[in-house]
Amino acid sequence: MENGLTEWAKGWPIVVSSLVGIAFCLSPLPYYSLGVLAPELIKEFGWDRAEVTFGFFCMTIGVFIGAPVAGYFTDRYGPRKVVLPSTIILGLTMMTFIFMDGSLWAFYLIFTLMATLSVGTLPITWTKAINNSFDKTRGIALGVALTGTGIYGFFAPTYVQWLIDGWGWKAAYIGVGALPIVFAFPIAFFLFSDKSVDKKKIIMTSDDPMPVETYGMTMAEIVRNYRFYIFLASFFVLGAAISGILANSVLILLDKGYTPQAATSLLTGVGITGLSVLFGRALGGYLLDRFWPPGVAFVFMIVPVIACYLLMQEQSSMLMNSLALAITGLAAGVEYDMMAFLTSRYFGMRSYGRTYAIIYALYGVGAGVSPFVYNKVQIATGSYDLILTIAGIGFVFGAVILLFLGQQPTFDRQQKSMAAE
Question: What domains can be seen in the chain, in order of their start residue?
């Protein structure tokens, strides 16, 4: 078995290309961009907050439809063949927002199509290649790659606001859409691969017609395993709680009296969220390699209860608001790490693409619906206090049930050895 240094010597191109690809994938691009663009769209078209953030729900529908398909093709043909076309499609569909003329239906349709057609850019694909290349240092490899969302999240608010201030909201959509095409695609084209697929080291099993590269459970075994439903429930609730705060962070700060520039600045506004996501990815990956993963997840997912409390305080200081966003960003950072890591450790790699896709799709439902729900509650009550209270309860629930995962199962590694020879 390879040691950690050998894994990195061989696998660093996969990690680097995945980092860039995940930075400009379907997950961070709309979330960190729409939060800044929302006030502009409200002013331009007369929409309200709930109508704008309903776009996230439409994106969720697309993810829910497309993720299982992307997972199937990733397991069947390898992640590279899914990633490359999806990256181009993401950039082009993001740019089509400039053709909006005030129709909410057009806005929602673009979101739905964008998600359905570019779902292959999500970590479903990138993390499969990483998991197939790293074992001893899998957690930190995933953590480094998944810092991509944090890197984009750190710079995105200022970048998007700069485009808006200089050229308007349409230029912002073009500038955001260009990122995956200009950066993610060429780097993935030259560096990204999945060694188990590229070397065609696959085996066939009589009970599963899919080619399998490694060890683990079949889908039939997974859907009968109680842990699968813990995953679904926990990540659905945690995704909703975290996404609702992150997607509405600019609006929450505006309600507290911040200017748009202050709310999107690097150090005093939502830029701090991206920085904390970045830190959370790396720290979470490091800890997952060294300690009991559900315990690590519990600690990081329970702390955002404090963030909910701080954001509910009307007169809280800039320091306290920044701390609240940093805590939430830290949880968001660890969440992606543990979703990919726990899926590979508790179910193996045999059906990883399909399993992760289903878990991610339900997570996406929670993450996509919550920004809209947050704003419906805000409109009805005049503040985010009630929904932040519910989110705090959700953090407790989602964190606690992960403790029932128990110890990691031990799989028969014979298949893995056969595939690596």
Answer: 4-199+210-420 (1.20.1250.20)
